[in-house]
Specification:
heterodimer, A: mainly beta, seven-stranded mixed β-sheet, four-stranded antiparallel β-sheet, about 50% strand, globular, B: mainly beta, six-stranded mixed β-sheet, five-stranded antiparallel β-sheet
């Protein structure tokens, strides 16, 4: 099946630890995105990438890092510099493949990060 | 970052009632999207709108791209229990990069 997968579903982080959230898509989409969602809030953009080996900061990039070495993969690292990392993290992709207009974003199932 | 104004923030309705929610922006959009999110899951795209005045249906859902390009609404007819969740609008500004702006969501509750 085509889609976006995120792993793990739940992730626990200790103080001072970096953790990496996985996002993979087999939709042949060019663009990928990471969002953070806090309770009762909308989605806030962390980083996005429109093409392999290139990415841009979103609205709340501090304390996060990303890489885009492959078209299918866009992992997000939550570093120890992110002082309030507890949130629900959503990955999305968009592209022209399959006739999808570039503006339409499709989401993965999310990863919930909790701090111990 | 700038956000859309989405209202209402939450709704409590009886099963079978119709629902209406809307989003407004201070700037012109060239795309409006409506998503639904179930608890603990990622948002699922319901309807995408690409032209001013466009009216699109998906089953019991109907959404419209406002003529001014600054607003959109979503209607749900004859609500059922599985309609419970959070509905998000999203839009893309004209002449901007590919970033999409999300509203804060409308949480729909259905009373037994």
């Amino acid at each position: 099946d085509g889609g976006i997968t995120q792993s793990p579903k739940y992730l626990f982080r200790k103080e001072g630890q970096n953790v990496t959230l996985s996002c993979e898509q087999n939709l042949n989409h060019d663009a990928m995105y990471w969002y953070r969602q806090d309770p009762g809030q909308g989605l806030r953009l962390i980083y996005y990438s429109q093409i392999v080996n290139d990415f841009q900061k979103g609205d709340i990039a501090e304390g996060y890092s990303v890489s885009r070495e492959k078209k299918e993969s866009f992992p997000l690292t939550v570093t120890s510099a992110q002082k309030n990392p507890t949130a629900f993290y959503l990955c999305a992709s968009s592209g022209l493949a399959g006739g999808s207009p570039q503006e339409t974003q499709y989401f993965g199932p999310g990863t919930r990060l909790l701090v111990l | 970052g700038q956000q859309l104004n989405q209202s209402p923030q939450s709704m409590f309705i009886q099963e079978g009632e119709d629902v209406s929610m809307n989003c407004t922006s201070s700037s012109i959009f060239n795309t409006w999207l409506w998503y639904k999110q179930d608890p603990g899951e990622g948002p699922v795209l319901l309807i995408a709108l690409y032209k001013a005045g466009e009216l699109t249906s998906n089953g019991r859902l109907t959404a419209q791209f406002g003529i001014t390009r600054k607003d959109s609404f979503l209607n749900i007819s004859a609500s059922i229990p599985s309609d419970v969740g959070i509905y998000f609008c999203a839009g893309r500004y004209m002449n901007r990069d590919d970033k999409i702006i999300f509203g804060k969501g409308t949480r729909l509750h259905i009373l037994p």
